[in-house]
Amino acid sequence: VPEVEGLTVRVVSSAARVLQVLPCFRDFFKQGNYPGEFPYKSKAILLFQKNEGVDVCLFAMYVQEYGSASPSPNQRHVYLAYIDSVKYFRPEIKSASGEALRTFVYHEILIGYLDYCKKQGFVSCSIWACPSTKRDDYVLYCHPTAQKMPRSDKLRSWYQNLIKKAVREGVVVERNTLYDFFLQPTSECKAVISAACLPYCENDFWPGEAEKLLEKKDDDTSQKNDIQAGRALRVAKRDDRKGNPEDIFLEKR
């Protein structure tokens, strides 16, 4: 990168892990032979810049790589679990494209990683684009006071610009949302659509939220809740999509 010195990317951790499926979700899909666990490789990748003779960590990404040995729906899928940065990148100038030079560098690291994954045989990658809240640190526990947390729309725009670059470079061939890709019926066919099709990744928002909804479903005993649940289930049964009405009900919630 012109005018930038002392940058080093390091893989500081690479460990084999096994994700256990949470009990309510596993029981809900037991008739479909849903897997009980997903093996994956967890990696921590950091960017450093030498500043006054000291290596300073600027950017961190934690990834989960679910290879061929991992069953569907996670097979050959990569999950970007956490991305974080501190605003110590030097120099603080704009790139030729008009964006901050640090953004250009962070995008290049991510595109390079996606290209590596593609060459390794992975076919998809997902991230839950959600900014952290105050007192909720993702990777780095301390940020400069001048560094602002991005709003949701700005963060999504940051990732969308990244993907546009990756598409132009031929690394990414398609982009979508998890909901549109997995849970929306197409006009050509009404295939069976199930919440079991969504990637199920460690510490992702979706598995935790699905587990809470299924626990609540089991715990709801009041008449009011029974009436509301019954009404919603009747709506799900009239849904054009093929599949288990209770499964569609879970997706709608």
From TrEMBL:
What biological processes does GO assign it?
positive regulation of transcription by RNA polymerase II
Q: What is its main location?
A: nucleus
Q: Per the database record, which ranges form the CBP/p300-type HAT domain?
A: 1-253
Tell me the superkingdom of the source: Eukaryota
The cellular location(s) given in this protein's UniProt record come to: Nucleus
GO terms assigned for molecular function: chromatin DNA binding; histone acetyltransferase activity; transcription coactivator activity
Which EC number(s) are documented for this chain?
Answer: 2.3.1.48
Give an example GO cellular component term for this record: nucleus
Q: Where is the composition biased (Basic and acidic residues)?
A: 236-253
Q: Which UniProt keywords apply?
A: Nucleus, Transcription, Transcription regulation, Transferase
Q: List, alphabetically, the InterPro entries matched.
A: CBP_P300_HAT, Histone_AcTrfase_Rtt109/CBP
Query: Annotated region Disordered: where?
Result: 216-253
State the protein's name: histone acetyltransferase
Source organism of this protein record:
Aegilops tauschii subsp. strangulata
